[in-house]
User: Fold this.
Amino acid sequence: LNMPTDRLEQLKSFYEEDPEDPFTRYALAQEHLKHDHTDRALGLFEKLVETDPDYVGTYYHLGKLYERLDRTDDALDTYERGIEVAREQREQKALSELQDAKLKAEGVGFE
Assistant:
């Protein structure tokens, strides 16, 4: 049995049952990433920051995906928004991860 595909199918069915659930959309986006379905993952992450801006975990992964796509400005904007959300929610771990990612992304041009 091919487990990853089964997980993808399982998440898709959860998504169909409740397309508004942020955790399902987040997990589905992550799973699409694992399968290199970049466009699908991107679409889900982008919709997630729009509809569930308080779901702090999304910003890091969306930012990283933008970086992979050479969309550094979008990545920086995304990290910036995530940092604000993490501060509001006092999510220390997310905050430091986002700040770290932002610093690395900013440093790209200076090597």
Residues 76 and 102 are 6 Å apart (CA to CA). Residues 72-88 form the longest helix (17 residues). The mean pLDDT is 93. Residues 1-52 form one domain.
